[in-house]
């Protein structure tokens, strides 16, 4: 009777140790927790602002720099930039990011194209605030 209780206890102990160990091994396998998904940028998605504002062929930034943007396109860019300020960065300081975006908005509203080009620098902003996806092998 006493013996049986003992065995049950040992089995329980072994099982729980194993569960703990498996859990531990599993948690060491994944190195870093995945970053949270990017949130909205005001009424837009960050993707839309980046693609249409900065990246695709005929993006608004390029049109503005080339002096080819219509008033509507310029206004659209400014609207993008103003909404970009509402994006919660997943990397770096939010205040720093908002300053970069404020410069971008001011530059987009001005006629200083050189200044605009500088304020719209992908690298300056991305280096501090963009999470790069893991490199594909
Ligand atoms: C003032 C800041 C700023 C500037 C300037 C900027 N970006 Fe971004 N960009 C961001 C932020 C913030 C993200 C999202 C970062 C994150 O959370 O990972 C982003 C993400 C992106 C993405 C990924 C979007 C997605 O989710 O699919 C692309 C593509 C991109 N940017 C292109 C550009 C290009 C090209 C330029 C320059 C011509 C540029 N960006 C300039 C702030 C900026």
Structure write-up:
The chain is mostly helical. It has a domain at 45-129. 65% of the residues lie in helices and 3% in strands. It has helices at 2-29, 46-55, 60-65, 71-84, 94-109, 113-119, 122-129; strands spanning 40-41, 44-45. A two-stranded antiparallel ribbon has the order 1-2. Strand 1 and strand 2 form a beta hairpin. Helix 4 (71-84) runs antiparallel to helix 5 and helix 5 (94-109) runs antiparallel to helix 6 (113-119). The protein is elongated, with a radius of gyration of 26 Å. The structure holds heme C (HEC). Residues 38, 46-47, 50, 54-55, 61, 87, 89-90, 100-101, 104, 120-122, 125-126, 129-131 line the site of heme C (HEC). Residues 38, 46-47, 50, 54-55, 61, 87, 89-90, 100-101, 104, 120-122, 125-126, 129-131 line the site of heme C.
Strands, total number = 2
What would you call the shape?
A: elongated
Mean pLDDT: 87
Q: Quickly count the helices.
A: 7
Q: Please list the strands of the largest sheet in the order they lie side by side.
A: 1-2
Bound molecules: heme C
Give the low-pLDDT segments.
none
Beta-strand portion reads under 5%
Helix content: 55-70%
Biggest beta sheet summary: 2 strands, antiparallel
Q: Would you list the SSEs in sequence order as H and E?
A: HEEHHHHHH
What structural class do the secondary elements suggest?
A: mainly alpha
The span between the termini is 60 Å
Rg over CA atoms: 26 Å
């Amino acid at each position: 009777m006493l013996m049986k209780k003992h065995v049950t206890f040992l089995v329980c102990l072994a099982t729980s140790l194993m569960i703990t160990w498996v859990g531990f091994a599993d948690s060491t396998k994944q190195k870093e927790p995945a970053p949270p998904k990017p949130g909205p940028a005001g009424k837009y998605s960050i993707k839309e602002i980046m693609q249409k504002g900065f990246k695709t062929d005929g993006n608004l930034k390029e049109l503005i720099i080339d002096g080819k943007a219509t008033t509507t396109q310029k206004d659209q860019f400014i609207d993008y930039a103003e909404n970009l300020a509402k994006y919660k960065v997943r990397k770096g300081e939010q205040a720093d990011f908002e300053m970069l975006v404020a410069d971008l908005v001011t530059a987009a509203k001005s006629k200083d194209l050189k200044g605009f080009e500088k304020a719209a620098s992908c690298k300056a902003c991305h280096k501090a605030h963009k999470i790069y996806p893991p490199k594909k092998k």
